[in-house]
Specification:
This protein is about 35% helix and about 20% strand. It is of the alpha/beta class. It has 4 domains: about 35 residues; about 45 residues, no CATH class; about 170 residues, Nucleotidyltransferase, domain 5 (2-Layer Sandwich), CATH 3.30.420.10; about 110 residues, no CATH class. The strands form 4 sheets. Strands 1, 2, 3, 4, 7 and 8 form a 6-stranded mixed β-sheet that branches. A 4-stranded antiparallel β-sheet has the order 9-12-13-14. A hairpin with a 6-residue loop joins β5 and β6. The radius of gyration is 35 Å and the shape is elongated.
């Protein structure tokens, strides 16, 4: 469309007998454009084209209303619209949401500070490192105190509930107490389900029992509102820097080095927000933490029913553990008690193994296979020597020296 000013200028100069080529050259136009404009009796007026009907028609008001509740997340809006009968694509929703999200993100955020011992924040992070010359993916548990910004960090190979709760207890020991509230994201180890507004939360029952045992209040932050947990997320990024370019001899070596770094570097740095050392600020909140002294560790137990395979093994959490020969084909209950795997049959403990770290590992006791070769299965000395608290049988059983089995294997008698 030709602007009014340009139309009047070309017509005025042409009426003064200025050549078309001269007009075109001075205005940076082609001669054909000048001829076309001179052929117009009046300037062309602008008329807006009628807006095309889109698949979002009828949903605009609903989207505007729901955007703040879902944190301006286009994917969340798209999923809600699908339930309302929307048949269009995700890209249309994303284009519609973008200007609203940009406007919301441009607004200043007020930093929320908490009083001493009031709140801590917990989160997981993942990164890759090298252990014994192998590239390993590790999971980083980080708890950050909201007031002092003092941290506890622990590396693990998974994010299972038992690992999650054990890391909590180590953090409580590290700080010498528990804050009155701990903020979490919406992982299944914490929250089983919730509505978008956050008014109805179904907590993981085992996790809720754990928090009640230690007397603190869990608080799940709203979905799509990561800034409500920004202190620990900044802490996770900070901890990840520690692993850059490092190689560790073992997993224990990794966590020992991480603990030293936390004490000698992270605790003593000048924090960018508080402008003080976390260890110094921690002195102001340590005495206000909920006490844990004298409280027994929370009993963390996992159990599953398994059938003993023909190779005398049972599987649990991708790892395999041996069982005495006579239980092949029978159902047994496998229980995980912290760092031990206990296997029961009809309520009686039949064997105990150290819990495997990692995946696809084997724990084999050779005594469990003696009956295959000699027609008689020997009593498991390891099982009998295990902590008597787990023994539910009152029978007295002779404990034989292991060298006895070597004499039998050589053809000797009892």
């Amino acid at each position: 469309m030709v602007k009014h000013e340009l139309w009047y200028e070309i017509h005025s100069r042409f009426k003064l007998k200025e050549p078309k080529k001269s007009i075109a050259r001075s205005l940076g136009l082609s001669v054909q454009t000048v001829r076309s404009i001179l052929g117009q009796d009046t300037p062309a007026t602008y008329s807006r084209q009628p807006k095309k009907q889109t698949a979002l028609a009828g949903f605009e008001d609903l989207i505007r209303k729901r955007l703040p509740a879902v944190g301006y997340c286009a994917q969340a809006i798209y999923e809600e619209l699908r339930d309302q009968g929307y048949t269009g694509g995700y890209d249309s929703v994303k284009r519609f949401v973008k200007p609203f999200r940009d406007q919301a993100q441009s607004k200043a955020t007020v930093r929320f500070e908490t009083p001493p011992a009031q709140q801590a924040q917990v989160d997981w992070g993942q990164c890759w490192t090298h252990i014994a010359e192998k590239r390993v993916k590790i999971h980083l548990f980080v708890m950050t105190l909201g007031y002092s910004r003092r941290m506890f960090a622990k590396a693990s190979l998974d994010e299972r509930l038992t690992t999650f709760l054990r890391c909590h207890e180590e953090a409580f020991d590290h700080f010498g107490g528990v804050t009155h509230q701990i903020v979490y994201d919406n992982a299944k180890t914490v929250v089983l389900s919730r509505d978008v507004e956050g008014s109805k939360i179904q907590w993981n029952s085992a996790f809720w029992d754990f928090s009640s045992y230690y007397g603190y209040q869990p608080w799940a932050h709203r979905p799509y509102r990561a800034q409500t947990k920004g202190k620990v997320e900044s802490g996770v990024r900070y901890v990840k820097r520690f692993f850059r370019g490092k190689v560790f001899d073992s997993f224990d070596d990794l966590n020992s080095a991480l603990s030293r770094w936390n004490a000698t570097v992270a605790d003593l740095r000048i924090h960018g927000t508080t402008h003080r050392r976390p260890l110094d600020l921690f002195e102001e909140e340590q005495s206000l933490l909920l006490p844990i002294k004298g409280k027994a560790p929370y009993r963390i137990q996992e159990r599953a029913v398994r059938y003993v395979a023909r190779d005398c093994m049972v599987s649990f959490e991708t790892n395999r553990y041996s069982v005495p020969l006579r239980f092949v084909g029978k159902p047994v209950e496998v229980q995980a008690w912290n760092d031990r795997i206990l296997i029961f049959q009809d309520g009686h403990l039949i064997v105990s193994h150290p819990r495997c770290e990692g995946k696809y590992q084997l724990q084999i006791d050779k005594e469990h296979y003696y009956g295959i070769f000699y027609g008689e299965e020997m009593a498991s000395v390891r099982m009998l020597a295990f902590d008597h608290r787990f023994s539910q049988s009152g029978e007295e059983v002779e404990v034989r020296d292991l060298s006895l089995y070597d004499r039998i294997a050589e053809g000797g008698g009892l």
